[in-house]
Amino acid sequence: MAALSLPSWLKRGEAPASCQTALSRQPSLEAAVEEVAKALGNRGANDLALVFCSTSYASDLPRLLPLLRSRLNARHWIGCAGGGVVGTDASGQARELEQQPALSVTLLRLPGADLQLFELDPASLPDLDGDNLDWINWVGADPERARSMLLFVDPTCQKINDLISGLDYAYPSAAKVGGIAGHHSAEHGSLLFDGRVLTGAVGCLIGGAWRLDPVVAQGCRPIGPVFEIEQAERNVVLQLSSGAQTNSPVNCLQGILQSLTPAEREQVRHSLFLGVARSNFSLPGDSCQAEPTAFLVRNLLGVDPRNGAVAVAEKLRVGQQVQFQLRDAAASRQELRQLLRRQARTDDAPLVALLFACLGRGEGLYGQPDGDVSVCREQFPQVPIAGAFCNGEIGPVAGTTHLHGYTASWGFLVPNHDDDGVPPAAARAEG
After folding, report:
1. 159: Cα within 13 Å, side-chain hemisphere
2. Are 163 and 120 in contact (CB under 8 A)?
3. Is 5 exposed, middle or buried (0-12, 13-18, 19+ CB in 10 A)?
4. Quick one: 171 and 118 in the same domain?
5. Residue 288: pLDDT band by 50, 70, 90 thresholds?
6. What average pLDDT score do residues 336-364 get?
7. Residue 90 falls within a domain, yes or no?
8. Which residue segment(s) compose the domain that 365 sits in?
9. Does 159 share its domain with 286?
């Protein structure tokens, strides 16, 4: 029999992987910290603490991490304030808590993990046309050791899209998941990093024996055919084609409306978006329906009634493929369910699921609380869930990281087989 190759952390006799979670709705910061700390206890050293709180605590935010660090033991601390909180309480119940005081803390023991934390000042962004080494040196983390990235950005940050593009440039093999933190009126920022509150951006590169598997659910379903852009000026689409027919975007949409139900036509009035293909995966007029997640869903900003052109929240080019999209609760559930089923078919159960959801989702989209986490529970009934409601969600579509809206950007923390050839054993989740 061939000898088994044991992972290096197991050879060293390290403790097994674990995830401890706690959630509090106490209105005062001290009471929330007390409840969370009591639920988590003092169960030895942890590698990473993830902290998400609502902006209800904004004025007290600088006191949050010092209070937690005095009660709990973790080597690294990272998180943000958001418009809402996602968390799992001591009983294992996952919740989405919107527009109310809430604190979610997750402690992770990750044997074999290679964690590189960083803080960035986007006011001094390197040149996107320069050497990627400039970006690597600016971040100060080794791309060879990174397989995934958690990224949180303060809402006051400028050039967020340039920042995301630059991080893709410097760390192309790292799947990036995260979001834009919540707005508040206090003078300090919304980002939590070690013992401080920061503006700019903070992140954690994850490598070694662990990685984040991203799942990006944009909450829309396509309507009508896939079109090809024939004329465009920056973010304005002037002409579309489908097969041999060319027309303005408005005329194309009017043709689609004829095939919709009365309810769908009503949705078009307030829930219409445009999906922009990341690659030309089908020919115009192809009968095969495009995969929804291959599109980057973008807002329609306006219509020019003179020529039927539409303005889109994305720079466009001739030859790019687009498809109109409708956003509704049923489409969101269906897409998320399909993506999570695919994730559940992977070899390893996740230690924790991280959710960064748009403020436009939640109860406003689903008409009831816990809409996204309840779909996740269908495939992962025992996995702890944590995260925040964001002002923009970060996640990959077709291999490139984007800033999204109305999206649920998930990161599933799973064992990484590339480190030693064997995944971490005996991983367990604790309430």
Report:
1. 14
2. yes
3. exposed
4. yes
5. very low
6. 94
7. yes
8. 8-217+332-430
9. no
